[in-house]
Amino acid sequence: MSVLVNKDSKIIVQGFTGSEGTFHAEQMIDYGTNVVGGVTPGKGGQEHLGKPVFNTVSEAVEKVGADTTIIFVPPAFAADAIMEAADAGIKVIITITEGIPVADMVKAYDYVNDKDCRLIGPNCPGVITPGEAKVGIMPGFVFKKGNVGIVSKSGTLTYEAADQVVKQGLGITTAIGIGGDPIIGTTTKEAVELLMNDEETECIVMIGEIGGQLEADAARWVKENGNKKPVVGFIAGETAPKGRTMGHAGAIVGGADDTAEAKKRIMSECGIHVVNSPAEIGKKVAEVLG
Questions:
Q1: Which residues form the CoA-binding domain (predicted)?
Q2: Is 18 annotated as contributing to ligand binding?
Q3: Is residue 96 a known part of a binding site?
Q4: Which residues neighbour 102 within 8 Å (Cβ) at sequence distance 6 or greater?
Q5: Is 137 known as a binding-site position?
Q6: 284 assigned binding-site residue
């Protein structure tokens, strides 16, 4: 089992022929991901990386049965790309683009909420189910198949956690990079819930950062649902000065519960195994899995 993406996912790339889309699509294809084509308006009918190019997402759905998309569209047009994918019936919309205007994302978020689909991101590294599908920009070689799920706001810490888990002789079911923007499609809680309901996932690594309530909400949900599986948690940004945006647009301390310290306290109270350094994630996972 896996969540969101697997070997049967039929993936298209929006922004397929651009430099980012080309580079990462090539990496995804090399990994063995089932990329069935891509979308670049005005270039329909051409071939790129040995795959068909379509003018619209609905055409890609109709011609090659696409059900998953990864978006490498520039920020000014990315919200439209998200809404186009949702409108065409795509089930999983993974948005890599960083810097989408907040007003645009508000519209896209509301639009997607009325459709039968799931939005991951924006400003995220994507989703990987090792050995099956890499739908993102993560280094595939770091991930090995196993029974640990990862949910992370940070791209680089996703890879770091995976590397440590693998070095402990374990592996990953699915790693979900949810993105670091203020408005994202799938919250920490929703991603944790997906992995909690996945039969193969026996432990979940939850990586958060300062700003917002996502990790606290997820921790409370885990507790309310009886701590069915062990969760190892880490919060980045311990030393960040208050009121300053750090790296991600969503990483800004607004209130007392937004600090790393407060989040760690809430997570601990909810039965999550909190580590103080990303260097401890792998060891803690091995310890809780016994």
A1: 4-100
A2: yes
A3: yes
A4: 182, 183
A5: no
A6: no
Q: Which residue in this structure is represented by tokens 């979900």?
A: 176
Please count the structural domains in the chain: 2
**Is position 40 annotated in a ligand binding site?**
no
CA distance 258 to 241: 12
Residue 130 lies in a domain: no
Name the residue type at position 76.
A
Residue 52 is predicted with a pLDDT of 98
Same-domain check for residues 143 and 109: no
17 is in an annotated binding site: yes
The mean pLDDT of the chain is 95
Task: Determine the pLDDT at residue 258.
Answer: 78
State residue 1's pLDDT score: 66
pTM of the model: 0.96
209 assigned ligand-binding residue: no
Is residue 248 among the annotated active site residues?
yes
pLDDT for res 256: 67
CATH value at residue 112: 3.40.50.720
What residues contact 4, with CB distance under 8 A and at least 6 apart? 92, 118, 120, 127, 129, 174, 176, 194
Averaged pLDDT, 91-105: 97
Catalytic residue (choose from 24, 48, 248, 273): 248
- CA dist 146 and 130 (Å) reads 8
Q: What is the mean pLDDT of residues 88-102?
A: 97
